[in-house]
């Protein structure tokens, strides 16, 4: 269903429809397919499709809502609000869209929970779309973020917090906030990750411990287990003191499980009903129900039923990576435990449990590594060993310690318990262990593998499935053979041009044989969000590219915003050829050979009139094709280029449109001299400067030039092969019908 309006969707529907009359086994599949369509469309229109206003960015519009979170430190200049009113439209309580808004109004104290009203310039949310890096549009859809914009004026109407779990979270942070690992204890007890810094998240991922920061089956299982044994101990003590034959008639195990299930539900409730918590609790509830009903239900059926219930409640959870990690992890644990129990049911002892734990950890590492590589471009090697210690410590020491701390703080009071020697001593021990693990695994704890395609990931899991299922083990070679044929049939790429989607700005990467030259770096916003760091660098790392040269066209902020981040990433080396190691200088006029391509800087020369006309113009050629990168040159520089350069130098197959399509550039004489087959605009969607200008578009249309646009197509990738050009657009390759097109 997520591939609706694509050939995959229609071919699957056609295939099932043809087989329906002739093969009975396909009838449930087709009926399930139709039911899935109904569920997805219903969920979409109920919870994800907002009847939103569609204002132009220059329009001022009224809004009202409750602040969900504040980004950065006070005074807040960027925040997220759950909207109840936009313009004349009032939303139903369960369909409140969110908006990310910037504000420059001084003296306005914006805090989470505040009711804010005012006027803003807003527009429907649309993010940058690249082949690598963070997909902001998918994230926004999952979190119901429908708008972004800028607040012109606002007032705080009230301070209100309707969230039932907020008082509990505040109390938890009061107890744990002063401790070294307070963020960890607070997250484990509340599911609130707002206190975890970016650096801490990276550290936990490197250690393979990211899974403990999201309330999941591990946490709920620990809470259930601790509750079960605690309730059993209390009841057993009571029975020892009050012997009563009546209790022998009851199945006390059922009582223990039900009460523990209720306690686990309270934990899920207080954690804010996170997605992963609901997944885990549904499986626990199914297991308890099966026990009470005296039904022997296989672990596979429990897993499949829980997955079906979760997807019935929200099919768009398939977009959440956590769904795959959670269910694959549980499936692996079930498989290993069942197979080991079958083989060694007669000798379950402590040594057996240790060996079983090691086997589970190894199998989890093997089976989750492809997912980790696909979603996070790497895998934690340290996690293979660290989790062997972390899980028992978390289960038997940390969780009981946190529950005891919260309970005593609630009963006795924070002042007397919070500063206790026991609390701070245990925290110091846990912090020492975590820091020690981090230091030991600092250099080799995380293996960065680069990007992996969906097809490779599916081939790997298909092979693992064939290995597990005995009847199909003889076919284990089939996925590898299919993938080998796929690779052999792929065309040889001589060189590649990537125009990355960096909004209003430019960042172009030309690569050949894993070497690359970078032309411009994109912008940097709020002096802290660098497009190089968040878009360009991930693409370079994911594709194992060595940055050989960097050229900065000129010193406008939308072209050189990421210089500081580039220097931190790669040093000054890549600036030496074209800038003599000085980033804020004009480029040198020279020719460099790199792999299969030749890079030649053609401009600037004498007679420069302005900073834009001083832009470095670069010609990239190889394999009978060439591209011209023009920076922000305007009509004056274009006339000079036509007069100074030869016809051969000016003629190019691909043109990066000068100055993002501004009317001050792209004169007809220049475009005719270049005579490009493909013109590429690098610009922002709904540009406030009205780019590209209508006159510029019309000139290219009259010349019959194919026009590509990062605002409409996203990241544009052109591969030069011996047989021609292959053009790929991120918004076509990574296409979902429910996301902006």
Looking at this protein, list some descriptive labels.
741 residues, alpha+beta, 27 helices, 23 strands, Competence protein ComEC, membrane
Oligomeric composition of the shown chains: single chain
What's the gyration radius in Å?
30 Å
Structural class of the helices, strands and pairings? Answer: alpha+beta
Q: Strands of the largest sheet, in order across it?
A: 15-16-17-18-19-20-21
Characterize the biggest β-sheet: 7 strands, mixed
Q: How many distinct beta strands?
A: 23
| Tally of contiguous helical segments | 27
- Determine the N-to-C terminus distance: 17 Å
Membrane topology: Multi-pass membrane protein
Subcellular location: Cell membrane
Pfam families: Competence
Keywords: Cell membrane, Membrane, Transmembrane, Transmembrane helix
Mind explaining what this structure looks like?
- Helix 10 runs antiparallel to helix 11, helix 11 runs antiparallel to helix 12 and helix 13 packs antiparallel against helix 15.
- The longest helix is centred in the middle third of the chain and has 31 residues.
- Helices cover 47% and strands 18% of the residues.
- A seven-stranded mixed β-sheet has the order 15-16-17-18-19-20-21.
- It has 27 helices and 23 strands.
- The protein has 741 residues and is α+β, with helices and mostly antiparallel strands.
- A hairpin with a 2-residue loop joins strand 10 and strand 11.
- Keywords: Cell membrane, Membrane, Transmembrane, Transmembrane helix.
- This is Competence protein ComEC.
- It is found in: Cell membrane.
- It is a multi-pass membrane protein.
- Its main location: membrane.
């Amino acid at each position: 269903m997520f591939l609706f309006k694509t050939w995959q969707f229609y071919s699957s529907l056609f295939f099932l429809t043809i087989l329906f009359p002739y093969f009975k086994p396909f009838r449930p599949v087709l009926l399930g397919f139709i039911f899935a369509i109904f569920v997805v469309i219903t969920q979409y229109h109920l919870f994800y499709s907002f009847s939103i206003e569609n204002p132009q960015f220059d329009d001022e519009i009224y809004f009202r809502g409750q602040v969900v979170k504040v980004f950065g430190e006070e005074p807040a200049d960027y925040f997220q609000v759950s909207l109840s009113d936009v313009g004349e439209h009032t939303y139903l309580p369960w369909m409140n869209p969110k908006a990310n808004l910037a504000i420059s109004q001084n003296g306005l104290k914006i805090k989470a929970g505040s009711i804010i009203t005012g006027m803003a310039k807003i527009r429907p949310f649309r993010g940058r779309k690249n082949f690598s890096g963070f997909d902001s549009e998918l994230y926004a859809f999952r979190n119901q973020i429908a708008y972004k914009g800028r607040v012109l004026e606002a007032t705080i109407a009230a301070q209100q917090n309707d969230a039932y779990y907020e008082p509990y979270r505040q109390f938890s942070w009061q107890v744990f906030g002063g401790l070294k690992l307070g963020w960890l204890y607070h997250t484990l007890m509340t599911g609130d990750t707002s206190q975890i810094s970016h650096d801490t998240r990276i550290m936990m991922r490197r250690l393979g411990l990211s899974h403990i920061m999201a309330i999941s089956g591990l946490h709920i299982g620990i809470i259930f287990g601790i509750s079960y044994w605690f309730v059993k101990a209390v009841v057993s003590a009571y029975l020892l003191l009050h012997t009563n034959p009546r209790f022998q008639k009851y199945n006390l195990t059922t009582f223990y499980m039900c009460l523990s299930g209720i306690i686990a539900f309270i934990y899920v409730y207080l954690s804010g009903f996170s997605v992963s918590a609901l997944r885990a609790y549904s499986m626990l509830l199914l297991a308890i129900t099966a026990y009470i009903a005296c039904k022997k239900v296989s672990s596979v059926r429990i897993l499949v039923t829980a997955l079906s219930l979760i997807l019935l409640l929200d099919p768009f959870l398939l977009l959440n990576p956590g769904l795959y990690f959670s269910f694959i992890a549980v499936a692996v644990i079930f498989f290993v435990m069942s197979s080991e129990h079958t083989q060694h049911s007669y000798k379950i002892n402590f040594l057996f449990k240790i060996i079983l734990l090691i086997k589970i950890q190894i199998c989890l590492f093997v089976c989750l590594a492809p997912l980790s590589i696909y979603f996070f471009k790497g895998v934690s090697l340290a996690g293979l060993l660290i989790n062997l210690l972390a899980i028992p410590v978390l289960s038997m020491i940390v969780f009981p310690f946190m529950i005891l701390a919260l309970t005593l703080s609630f009963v006795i009071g924070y002042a007397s318990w919070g500063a206790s020697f026991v609390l701070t001593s245990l925290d110091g021990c846990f912090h020492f262990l975590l820091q020690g693990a981090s230091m030991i695994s600092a250099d080799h704890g995380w293996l960065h593998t680069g990007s992996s395609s969906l097809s490779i990931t599916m081939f790997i899991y298909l092979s693992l499935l064939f290995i597990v299922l005995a009847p199909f083990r003889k076919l284990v070679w089939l996925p590898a053979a299919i993938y080998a044929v796929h690779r052999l049939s792929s065309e040889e790429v001589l060189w590649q041009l990537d125009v990355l989607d960096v909004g209003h700005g430019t960042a172009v990467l030309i690569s050949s044989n894993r070497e690359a030259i970078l032309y411009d770096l994109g912008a940097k916003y709020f002096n802290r969000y660098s497009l190089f760091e968040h878009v360009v660098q991930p693409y370079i790392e994911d594709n194992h590219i060595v940055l050989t040269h960097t050229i900065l066209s000129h010193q406008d902020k939308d072209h050189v915003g990421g210089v500081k981040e580039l220097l931190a990433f790669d040093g000054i080396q890549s600036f030496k050829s074209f800038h003599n190691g000085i980033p804020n200088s004009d480029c040198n006029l020279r020719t460099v050979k790199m792999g299969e391509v030749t890079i030649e800087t053609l401009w600037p020369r004498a007679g420069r009139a302005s900073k834009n006309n001083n832009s470095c113009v670069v010609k990239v050629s190889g394999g009978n094709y060439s591209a011209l990168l023009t920076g922000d040159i305007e009509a004056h520089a274009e006339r000079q280029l036509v007069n100074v350069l030869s016809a051969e130098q000016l003629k190019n197959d691909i043109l990066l449109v000068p100055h993002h399509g501004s009317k001050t550039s792209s004169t007809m004489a220049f475009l005719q001299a270049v005579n490009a087959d493909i013109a590429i605009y690098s610009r922002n969607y709904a540009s406030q400067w009205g780019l590209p200008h209508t006159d510029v578009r019309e000139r290219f249309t009259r010349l019959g030039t194919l026009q590509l646009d990062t605002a409409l197509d996203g990241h544009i990738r052109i591969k030069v092969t011996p047989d021609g050009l292959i053009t790929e657009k991120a918004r076509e390759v990574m296409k979902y019908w429910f996301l902006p097109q």
